[in-house]
Amino acid sequence: MPKDYTFEDLKPGILLLAEPFLDEPVFHRTVILLCEHSSSHSFGLVLNHPQDAILDSIREEKVMEEIPLYTGGPVDQTILQFIHRRPDLITGGQEISPGLFWAGDFEQAIEAIINQQIEFKDIKFFVGYSGWSAGQLEREVKSDSWMLEPATLDYVFDETPESLWRKVLYQKGGNYRILSTYPDDPTLN
Predict the structure, then answer these.
(1) What per-residue confidence (pLDDT) applies to 61?
(2) Where are the alpha helices (DSSP H) in 119-160?
(3) Where are the alpha helices (DSSP H) in 78-160?
(4) Of 12, 76, 122, 188, which is the most buried if we count CB atoms within 10 A?
(5) From first to last of its 189 residues, what are the pLDDT tens digits of the chain?
(6) Where are the domains of the chain?
């Protein structure tokens, strides 16, 4: 594991940033919000892969405006989840980082959107998720596949998906700042 990470750093509320040379197209330059981490499994949602689809396209009830969807990861594209920063409007969520909640009462979330009480800058919906079996994520971090950074509300909700990976690395400073400028395809230099 990189010397600036420990196994205790893997916990809900941590961002996993794919290293720039990760040879896995599905995770190319992804930023994953870790929502659960235990000795039996790990689970997270990709923050920077918006879909062309909208929530109405996967729900039978068509009463909402165009709610954007994100691909949470390659596992089980039938599962719909959400994160938010509005516990005053959506009860039952699990706080995974200060002010950042995973899940909660889905119907309350939809009602708050319909009633224009909540904006899309405060909530994100995901289909699918990213998952790891026991010890798998630790091994991947140890092999330098992922870099870690605590999630902030700005990173999760305010940064554009296209710039999120670079922005987080740049703000980490030092050698990470250099990595943030590395081209997508170095052969084109």
Answers:
(1) 57
(2) 136-142, 153
(3) 106-114, 136-142, 153
(4) 12
(5) 344 666 788 999 999 999 988 777 889 999 999 999 999 999 999 999 998 765 654 455 545 557 788 999 999 988 899 999 999 999 999 999 999 999 999 999 988 988 889 988 999 999 999 999 999 999 999 988 999 999 999 999 999 999 999 999 999 998 888 888 877 766 665
(6) 14-188
Q: Please provide residue 113's backbone torsions phi and psi, each rounded to the nearest 5 degrees.
A: -70, -50
Q: How far apart are the C-alpha atoms of 56 and 66, rounded to whole Å?
A: 7
Q: Class assignment of domain 14-188?
A: alpha beta
Residues 6+ apart with CB under 8 A from 169: 17, 147, 176, 177, 179, 180
Residue 119 to residues 1, 86, 137, 142: CA-CA distances in angstroms?
39, 10, 33, 38
Per-residue CA distances from 141 to 13, 74, 86 (Å): 16, 19, 31
d(CA 149, CA 134): 21
Burial of 121 (0-12, 13-18, 19+ CB in 10 A): exposed
**CA proximity to 18, closest of 178, 147, 142:** 147
pLDDT at residue 186, rounded to an integer: 62
Tokens of 13: 């509320």
Beta bridge partners of 37: 42
Tokens of 36: 């659960």
Q: Residue 176 is which amino acid? A: Y
